[in-house]
Target: NADH-ubiquinone reductase complex 1 MLRQ subunit
Amino acid sequence: MAANRWLKPEVYPLFASVGVAVGICAMQLVRNITTNPEVRVLKEKRSAGILENFEEGEKYSQHSVRKFVRNRTPEIMPSINKFFSDPN
Model:
């Protein structure tokens, strides 16, 4: 009976949006644990103290998505922006 209460078609978008949010959080968590130079999971790496690893930090901060959008204009819908902002 409890499944009938929660699994109605009206609730599907809520489940989908919560699922996407949890997926984004999990992706960021895995990214930080695996590639962040400031996060050290192993005991041997934690005992090293403060590291001067600028190359690794640069690689982490300048990831592929940031490189892809670096030289693009910050517009979500350029054609609509052009339509409303063009005086002609």
Notes: The CA atoms of residues 65 and 71 lie 12 Å apart. The chain has a mean pLDDT of 82.
